[in-house]
Amino acid sequence: MNVLIVHAHPEPRSLNGALKDLAVQHLTALGHTVQVSDLYAMGWKASADGADFLTSNAGERLFYERASKAAFTNGTQTADISAEQQKLLWAQAVILQFPLWWFSMPAILKGWIDRVFAFGFAYGVGVHEGERWGDRYGEGTLTGRRAMLSITIGGRAPHYTDRGVNGALEDLLFPIEHGVLFYPGMDVLPSFTVYQSDRMKEEQWPAVAEAFKARLDGLFTDAPIPFRRQNGGHYDTQQVLKPGLGDGASGTRIHRVREGEPEQRPLTPWGGTPA
Question: Which parts of the sequence are annotated with region: Disordered (predicted)?
Fold first, then answer.
């Protein structure tokens, strides 16, 4: 299977660097083919601006969304954007490797998403009429692929629980797991997380490494987070969860299918749901 690792840490000798290297070695040993986009090593341009498009009208106001759509459609994106899109289409699984900085991903990784997830590629896909708001949230260009976050966190695990001062980790990661990865169709596995990463001692590494390898072993077999598909029948025409669904849950958790709830409509072979 083909695996893309998108790595976002400025120090190759960091824990993130070690996890990235371990993933490459272990996945390769399992027979998978691995590509790495090491964003800092690549000198990745993080800012989304007019320089992302090979053709533009000088002096005209920039509407980045419209320009992104035109460039993707006409093949006038810059080469770095197109190359990363091709890696995503090649991949059958995607791992984002990064440290949690200020409750989110490093700016360079956010810039990778801003530029690579172009209009017509990752969003603005499918029919937008009637009850359909396009192919998104479980459908779209990247349907059939798997994704997983591998993150390091300086804080302690109890800080990232429902009653912890930082909030539950699954809520903090919801914009990435649901809003970035599930949005264009990927099935998202629960994150692999290392807490107190800046205090980790050398003797702790073997246990972390074994735990990570176990997660990599299940990259194509472990159950993904059961997010509800937008067009699976659980949302109304305004894309609001229908009454009776999500009972007993709150916050972002209502967007996960719960045991005993009605099944979602099946996907058609091309990714859409039957009319």
Answer: 231-275
State the pLDDT at residue 275. Answer: 37
Quote the CA–CA distance of 86 and 112 in Å, as a whole number.
14
C-alpha radius of gyration, the chain, whole number:
19
CA-nearest of 39, 48, 188 to 119 is: 48
What pLDDT does residue 177 have?
98
**What is the tally of structural domains in the chain?**
1
Query: Is position 111 within any domain?
Result: yes
Which pLDDT belongs to residue 227? 98
Q: How far is CA 72 from CA 79, 114, 115, 248, 271, in A?
A: 11, 14, 11, 43, 21
- CATH, residue 167: 3.40.50.360
Alpha carbon distance 83, 90 (integer Å): 11
Specify whether the CB–CB gap between 153 and 164 falls below 8 A.
Answer: no
Which structural domain range is residue 83 located in? 2-224
Tokens coding 147: 């994704």
pLDDT at 269: 54
Q: Are 42 and 9 in contact (CB under 8 A)?
A: no
Nearest to 23 by CA among 86, 98, 114, 89: 98
Domain annotation covers residue 53: yes
Would you say residue 185 lies in a domain?
Answer: yes
Q: Which residues of the chain have pLDDT under 70?
A: 130, 268-275
In a domain, 271, yes or no: no
d(CA 163, CA 173): 16
pLDDT for position 55: 87
